[in-house]
Design brief:
With 194 residues, the protein is mostly helical. The protein has eight helices and no strands.
């Protein structure tokens, strides 16, 4: 049945001047397909956001999800480290913008401000930490420790970014600042100690 009650089809007496076509949405094949596609896209979008936000599931780790996410960041760095520095920088900027969007959507999905299972921000922060640093085992290990330390301790203005910036900006912003701090210290260590 495509058309339901004639009263609904043409509206009530007060609406007779403007006829309204009412299609029974449950039985209309085109509408049903469209709705199924919309629901399918919504479900696929939500799944994509969940997978990206949790760093391919690393954020679901019961112990230290931020550390698990940073380990995924090490793998991403191994790919990015092959790029010349301008392309590396561009990749980090694009990844950061993507992370802001994903984090914002993930906060909406999980209905919580910066839940610990969102670790895409740690992945971005580690890329910032390793900017202009050669991919040796010692550098990666040092960068990992420095980044985790700054991300956990949150010296000024890292905590301020986390608290004051809205949505995905706050989620990712504090890790970018932690990455900048870590990068400066790491570059100094590489230059003068390592």
């Amino acid at each position: 049945m495509w058309i339901s009650d004639p009263g609904i089809l043409w509206g009530s007496n007060s609406q007779r001047a403007k006829p309204q076509l009412f299609i029974d949405k449950e039985y209309h094949p085109l509408y049903s397909c469209t709705q199924q596609n919309k629901r399918g896209v919504g479900v696929m979008h939500e799944r994509f956001i969940r997978v990206a936000a949790t760093g391919l599931g690393s954020g679901l780790s019961p112990f230290a999800p931020g550390t698990a996410g940073t380990l995924v960041g090490v793998l991403v760095y191994m790919v990015f480290s092959r790029f010349p520095w301008p392309l590396y920088l561009l990749s980090v900027v694009v990844l950061s913008l993507f992370a802001v969007y994903v984090s914002w959507e993930a906060e909406r999905i999980y209905n919580k401000k910066d839940p610990s299972l969102i670790v895409i921000d740690e992945i971005v922060g580690f890329q910032v930490t390793m900017f202009l640093v050669a991919p040796t085992a010692w550098h990666v290990f040092s960068g990992f420790i420095l980044f985790r330390a700054f991300d956990i301790i949150k010296p000024f203005p890292i905590r301020l970014c986390e608290q004051k910036l809205p949505g995905g900006y706050g989620v990712v912003g504090d890790d970018i600042v932690a990455g900048v701090y870590s990068n400066v210290v790491l570059l100094l260590l590489v230059r003068f100690v390592m």
